[in-house]
Amino acid sequence: MTISVLSVASEAYPLVKTGGLGDVVGALPAALMPHDVNVVTLVPGYPRVIAAVQGAAALHDWPDLVGAPARLLSGTIGGHKLLVLDAPGYFAREGGPYGDPSGRDWDDNWRRFAAFGRAAADLASGAVKGFRFDVLHAHDWQSGLAPAYLRFAPAGGRCARSVMTIHNIAFQGRFDASIFGSLALPDRAFAVDGVEYYGGVGYLKAGLEAADAITTVSPTYAAEILRPEFGMGLEGLIRARRERVSGIVNGIDPAVWNPAADAALPERYDAGDLALRTINKRALEKAFALEPGDGPLFCVVSRLTWQKGMDVLADTLDALVAGGGRLALLGSGDAWLEHAFQEAAARHPGRIGVRIGYDEALSHLMQGGADAILIPSRFEPCGLTQLYGLAYGCVPVVARTGGLADTVIHANDAALDAGVATGIQFDAVTHESLAQAIALALRLFATPERWSSIQRAGMAADFSWATSGRRYADLYRELLSA
């Protein structure tokens, strides 16, 4: 039996992406197709998305969707069905998906994503002619009201089962209780087993409470969020529903991330000709104005935030350079961290290069040219950059948390002797532990046979969507047979 799934998310690569969420949502349709699962993706009609479906006829109209008119458009994404919620009053704005050009959150995000959730629930409960879905799969807080609308205010038709996926529990969509009256939910929904959350309205909380199943993006993170230090206030709810919670590691799309076929690389290569990476290394050095050399070149592709451990990394850069390393960093985030890295680059010209912002093609070159990628996250639900690093022979140096712990095999003596080590892990995100991990990377790099063994083991690992896609398909089937 073919299962029909409505995947509901605020991002989907390549149309809109601010992080791993977009990559995952963009990859899911192809990942699930071999398992007899047909995925239709619903995204908001941001300007770039509307441009991609220009000329599409409206499939459905909402004269008043939580306060503004909207219509449903169709298109394709990666050859798969795409639905777009075209609501100019909510989404036809300059800036990012969630905030204005200065980075400040839109004041009406609560209404924008309530409308998005309401539209998704209408699609998943029979209100839109021509559409019928077996499963609604909601991603992160921006889609969290969709399962709640299905539970408390369905459109009247046959309701789909629902899955709520946590990509990062730190982002919860919490708003004042005063908005509840505008959500068109019954009074009973404003309760501890509904959308109420510490006296206000919680969008992610609502989805976790209402969904038939909860997933997050790695087994270790699924265990971590049961504890207060990782659960961010939702650990009690997660513990209460732990029988419904599972962790499924994200995959990466080999059609996009493959060093043997990557058009962003000056020189393509595979595990059998790692020496060709040197050509990419020279190009990367030039891009970041670094002194050329054969010594270890580390890279960072990250949001510059406390969660990502960037404050600790900034304090460790002098030690990295003193040990003979160099660094290329691409990212943006907190202004004080941006300034700290720029200051480090000024202190160490030719040894540290910094690009503030994001550049997709450059991120591919960094994975294909750097020797190692630093990921000192305090928590990391799954992480994708370490998976890209593994695929490209860019050795991950990671904190032992979440998906980082699940996907990187630490280079201890036993793993090195067995030829299965794929990177370096460290505990406790502190200056001392990160400096020790970097020192280990420098020692291993000085032994080319061991370093290339780590690279090849990482490149041999299978982090495609094959396994993860099957696990999602199995989950959908379990829900439908329950």
From TrEMBL:
Pathway assignment: Glycan biosynthesis; glycogen biosynthesis
Annotated GO MF terms: alpha-1,4-glucan glucosyltransferase (ADP-glucose donor) activity
Origin: domain of life: Bacteria
Entry's family note: Belongs to the glycosyltransferase 1 family. Bacterial/plant glycogen synthase subfamily.
Binding site for ADP-alpha-D-glucose: 17
Pfam entry (one): Glyco_transf_5
Gene3D superfamilies listed in its UniProt record: Glycogen Phosphorylase B
Catalytic activity annotation: [(1->4)-alpha-D-glucosyl](n) + ADP-alpha-D-glucose = [(1->4)-alpha-D-glucosyl](n+1) + ADP + H(+)
Boundaries of every Glycosyl transferase family domain copy: 286-453
UniProt name for this protein: Glycogen synthase
UniProt cross-references to InterPro entries, sorted A to Z: Glyco_trans_1, GS/SS, Starch_synth_cat_dom
Keywords, in A-Z order: Glycogen biosynthesis, Glycosyltransferase, Transferase
Documented EC number(s): 2.4.1.21
Free-text function comment from the UniProt entry: Synthesizes alpha-1,4-glucan chains using ADP-glucose.
Organism lineage string: Bacteria, Pseudomonadati, Pseudomonadota, Alphaproteobacteria, Sphingomonadales
Domain Starch synthase catalytic: 5-239
Group of enzyme by EC: transferase
